[in-house]
Design brief:
The protein is mainly β and 378 residues long. The protein is built from 7 helices and 30 strands. Strands 1-2-13-12-29-30-14 form a 7-stranded antiparallel β-sheet, with no helix packed on it. Strand 25 and strand 26 form a beta hairpin. The protein is globular. The chain starts with a strand and ends with a strand.
Amino acid sequence: MKWAVVLCAMMALSECFIEVPLIKGKSAREKLEEQGLWEHYRLMYPYKNVKFQDQSLYVTGQQMTNDADLSYYGVISIGTPGQSFAVIFDTGSSNLWIPSVYCASAACANHKKYNPSLSSTFRNSGKSLSIQYGTGSMTGFLGYDTVVVGGLPVQNQMFGLSQTEAPFMAHMAADGILGLAYPRLAASQATPVFDNMMDQHLVSQDIFSVYLTSNSAAGSVITFGGVNPNHYYGPINWIPLSDETYWQITVTSVTVNGQIVACNGGCQAIVDTGTSNIVGPQADIANIANAVGANSANGDDVVNCNYINNMPDIVFNINGQAFSIPGSSYVRQSQYYGCRAGLSKSNDSLWILGDVFIRQYYSIFNRAQNMVGLALAR
């Protein structure tokens, strides 16, 4: 694909790898703010992080949050000849799905739709798929086809074709989702895309890595098959996974100005490119917001835009290392709604280190050794 870059280097963690550029488009929140519809939308579709709340659903359906702040997506193609789609590369889920020509929902009207009749390599699996959102759901069926990611042709990849989609999807820039978590999380026993990449020997190393920038024009990439030293500096801190379903790690504590404000005694967190904010239990997030000087308003933690550079770091202590997030990284600025902290409350005990965290730390997902590597992003 024209969007892919093949890079080779004589370094221990690099060798040859594929980089797929990620576009930082306008989030659903930003689009709705521009139209003056955000408050109406927020009340109709309140943020609910449902990814991690009912594991019994994993057998039959994939779960996903209705996160209005998601903004990073990349381009893949499906079929022969290829049909192109913008997808969110999501380390918090394991299935690939895109809209289909059989979808009549309003959410599908402004997205690209896959037409299986135009692909000579498509096969229908005969299985259905259901994805549960915070409000509404996506339903469809599963098929097989060739999926090309960064020029890598993944043969016989199972993926979902939507037939109905939740209304809030209409406001998202991406057409669908490409999950990069472990097979245990996949609906209908579908083999995830990266697992097929490894099985089909398409990558030189069983590693992919993510580099996110705040620049909407260019810079963000997902790298398959290695680590690009141009995207980070300093050492890589390797953290063993505490569970091999999500990219889950143990956090010792969260501190602000040297004081423990959350995760006292330790907690579990996942590194998740499919979530925009840092998400944690309600009381803990409230403590963090209070410690950095944020005030609650209309469901957001609002801060004074003039004080961003003076706000304290939020520090995640992980595996003996301190990972600091400065105010300039965890505060979002909007010309319509001022400044707010990139923090979200959940009813679940599992923390999520989303894009707010990943923009600060180049994140390496190592399937060979079941570890996450974190290094300061350039």
